[in-house]
């Protein structure tokens, strides 16, 4: 059985499966990893590490999306 944990994402409490990677979390939120910057517990996560960065209980994420326009 997969245990759920809670994290904070952009000031909202979110329940996620334990051992979820940042990459899977971003995909589940229908975000393009090439257009976001993610900060976890105050540290910017390198995009190359999204697939291996496992989210932990009570971690705090800030996801910033880049939007183009004119």
Quaternary status of these chains?
Answer: single chain
Instruction: Calculate the terminal CA-CA distance, rounded to whole Å.
Output: 48 Å
Percentage of residues in helical conformation: 10-25%
Shape assignment: globular
Taking all Cα atoms into account, the compactness measure Rg is 12 Å
Largest sheet: 5 strands, mixed
Average residue pLDDT = 95
Overall SS class: mainly beta
Structural commentary:
The protein has one helix at 22-28; strands at residues 4-9, 12-17, 36-40, 43-45, 60-65. The chain is mainly beta and 70 residues long. It has a domain at 21-59. A five-stranded mixed sheet has the order 2-1-5-3-4, with no helix packed on it.
Could you give a quick summary of the protein structure above?
The protein has one helix spanning 22-28; strands spanning 4-9, 12-17, 36-40, 43-45, 60-65. With 70 residues, it is mostly beta strands.
